[in-house]
Specification:
Two copies of one chain form a homodimer. With 442 residues, chain A is an alpha/beta fold. Chain A has two domains: 5-64 and 370-413, Urease, subunit C, domain 1 (Roll), CATH 2.30.40.10; 66-355, Metal-dependent hydrolases (TIM Barrel, Alpha-Beta Barrel). The first copy, chain A, has 15 helices and 18 strands. In chain A, the strands form three sheets. An eight-stranded parallel sheet of chain A has the order 8-9-10-11-12-13-14-15. A six-stranded mixed sheet of chain A has the order 3-2-7-16-17-18, with no helix packed on it. In chain A, strand 10, helix 4 (165-179) and strand 11 form a beta-alpha-beta unit. In chain A, helix 2 (105-121) crosses helix 15 (423-440), helix 11 (318-333) crosses helix 12 and helix 11 packs across helix 14. Chains A and B meet through helix 2, helix 9, helix 11, helix 14 and helix 15 of A and helix 2, helix 9, helix 11, helix 14 and helix 15 of B.
Chain lengths: 442, 442
């Protein structure tokens, strides 16, 4: 500590989300060179610490930044464009046509910046995204100073048949080469849309690249009953077993949704070490179903939370997603003990980091990890009284209670203002693009 | 208009929530003597209007204030005290003992003020409350300038048997006499806790008083499977039929929860014109079940939204409650069309007003009604782009987006500050009381 720190956080209550779930009252946290240098109690400090910047966390809950394990950031432009419709009508007559017409590099970049602003304002410090023109998402993350896993998307032509595999492989390899090592904030990844929109050959080809490059492989899986029916008709097995047969299940696979699983599917996911991204609000809004998360947890599967894209949620607020996650499983199982506030808070932090294979470097506030830290201001009527921080965060707080956000040791949000982003410009650009989509998108 | 108006709201987009669901772009709304004098379009004004106060609503959605049809305000002191527990453990070992020890006039008043501040900050302008020491709730509503239906609560001794009926009747009559006509903001009412905690004689005696005085009669009904079992064991019929036999069902009865209903129960509620308060978040958190609201709506039953008390939600934010209400029915029925954003927005405004028999005077922004109006600031990342106001409010907004609140023609919240409440004092008093509860409450 002789050289001082870049940032010193003092006061409040720290939820470390460490394995022991240690809570530190009136803590002092030192941050240097992007990392957490030490975590201690103020009353144990023997000498003053020199700091370039001090953050007063009195009256705040301090905790690791939230990890959004599944998003499609540019779909923020389709938020509220079409809702309350049958899934296939929504996809085929609204979302897919709007994507065909409006998705381009500029739109993806502008939408990603807007979505990143929304996420920072609601306490998310890491997101995992899958879409097209994903390089624009990656660039937006770096420009905004946000940590991200960005996955280039692959989907076969809707007419059926394979896409051009060698072209896919080239795109995948180029994407990884372009972004690997470019920034400590960024992990490139690959995203096969689903077993019903990607042929087995496509699934395998992309998995081969991701294995070779040791990057995450993301796939929507068992989201709807229709998907299960479709895959059974085509391949004679469940979606999970179809992926197993295709050889793409391993501990670098992030399976998103996993709503319709049989017992042997669950066992296979556990055996292969597959990670699961649970997106309860999207699954509810699209009437897909309720994922068997309590069973996944019993089997030791690592489960994180995701918001999904803004067209099917319609926000990127993980604090509200936690509330929904805790409640939906209680009512679905008829058991209020089945999903505790602490469990969902783990899913939104350390377990989410585990889903992205980043649990060694983020997801908790411990010395040695990257300094991805948020402060929640508790001096508000709806957060008073405060008996239990876990309960309060899950059941009473929402994204707007996040006051300060630190990512990679930099303050990216301070008292809900962005030191480094021109938010008015981001909103103006987004409104301009949305104006065009609103005119012709539907 | 020759005399000018007290408040003039200009600009933005007005969702009137009138029967025709009229939307007015760039409106002008005149308010005088607590009421809405006129609603027009700015471009149709021929002469300037004199106003004591002008509210600039550019970039805002203007809409009627939200109506919370079921709360227990003082339970705000038990928010987060005990969560994720089996219902009977939660009630018998945590909530009931805490109530026995800590509920008193001062606690009820302090808790009500805190809860009212939370509700105003999240856009609620009318609440319907049932608790003990309800005069303190009523006084808090008047002191804070909030519209309320306040219901004195009755519950028989847990040992069983009737309470003292003549004493009950005296308390009920005295409560109504005390508050009737005291303030245009307040409607006194009576609240029998439930068919399993109130004997048929108690249910009937209180109903007789409420009929005579023409005030609402509130009762928890068919909340859990256990209740249905208990009532069937005791009386041989369903909870609804038990209340029908007791003669307490009519169009001034507000039945809260109504989760476990059979077809004939639904028909009986419709036949008697009973109003229903739907509390989805509480029903989810306590794992009670999902109320058959789509069926209620098909039968023409008037359904409003409620948050329930803060111990079982754990907030009073109706904007988030709308989100949950829309989503839970979709996933529960496997049909994304079953509950639209517009339908839940009606439940939170004009239908909620109907539940309280106040639809002639509040619940929509129309000339002649009381001026209970809120503004939602849309200049935020999570509310951008904005294609559809109903969707945005239900699926993307939360209480913190409410900027300005007008109740009874008075601005009670302006840019999220209270002109008339000392919020720091309210928080301090609440923290003091909560400090005692936290020490000994569990």
């Amino acid at each position: 500590m002789e050289n001082g720190v870049d940032i010193l956080i003092r006061g409040g209550t720290l939820l470390t989300m460490s394995e022991a779930m240690e809570i530190v009252h009136d803590p002092v946290i030192g941050i240097r060179d992007g990392k957490i240098l030490f975590v201690d109690r103020q009353d144990r400090l023997t000498a003053p610490i020199r700091a370039k910047e001090t953050v007063d966390a009195s009256h705040s809950i301090i905790m690791p930044g939230l990890v959004n394990t599944h998003t499609h950031l540019p779909m923020i432009f389709f938020r509220g464009l079409a809702d309350d419709l049958p899934l296939m009508d929504w996809l085929n007559n609204h979302i897919f046509p709007a994507e065909a017409k409006h998705v381009n590099r500029e739109m993806v970049y502008a939408g990603s910046l807007l979505a990143i602003a929304e996420m920072i304002l609601s306490g998310t410090t890491t997101f995992c995204d899958g879409y097209f023109y994903e390089s624009s998402v990656a660039q937006a993350a770096i420009d905004a100073g946000m940590r991200a896993v960005t996955a280039q998307g692959f989907i076969d032509p809707p007419a059926g048949g394979n896409g051009n595999l060698s072209k896919y492989i080239e795109i995948a390899e180029r994407f990884i080469d372009k972004w690997r090592g470019k920034s400590g904030l960024l992990t490139p990844a690959l995203f096969c849309h689903s077993p019903y929109t990607c042929s087995p050959d496509t699934l395998k080809a992309i998995k081969k690249v991701s294995r070779g490059a040791k990057v995450p492989y993301i796939v929507h899986l068992a989201e709807t009953r229709d998907e299960v029916r479709m895959i059974r008709e085509r391949y004679g097995v469940s979606p999970v077993m179809h992926l197993e047969r295709s050889g793409v299940l391993d501990d670098a696979t992030i399976a998103v949704h996993c709503v319709w699983l049989e017992e042997k599917d669950l066992e296979m996911l556990a055996t292969r070490g597959v990670k699961v991204s649970h997106n309860p609000e999207s699954n509810m809004k699209l009437a897909s179903g309720v994922a068997p998360v309590p069973d996944m947890l019993k089997k030791g599967i690592t489960v994180g939370l995701g918001t999904d894209g803004s067209a099917s949620n319609n926000d990127l607020d993980l604090l509200m997603e936690m509330d929904t996650a805790a409640k939906i499983h209680k009512v679905f199982r008829g058991d209020p003990t089945v999903m505790s506030a602490m469990t969902v808070l783990k899913m939104a932090t350390i377990r989410g980091a585990g889903v992205l294979n980043l649990a060694d470097s983020i997801g908790s506030v411990e010395a040695g990890k990257y300094a991805d830290i948020i402060l929640v201001d508790t001096r508000k009527p709806h957060l008073t009284p405060l008996y239990n921080c876990y309960s309060q965060l899950v059941y009473a707080a929402n994204g707007a209670d996040v006051s300060t956000v630190i990512i990679n040791g930099k303050v990216v949000l301070k008292e809900r203002r962005f030191p480094g982003l021109d938010i008015e410009d981001i909103l103006d650009r987004a409104r301009k693009i949305a104006g065009e989509i609103g005119k012709t998108g539907r």
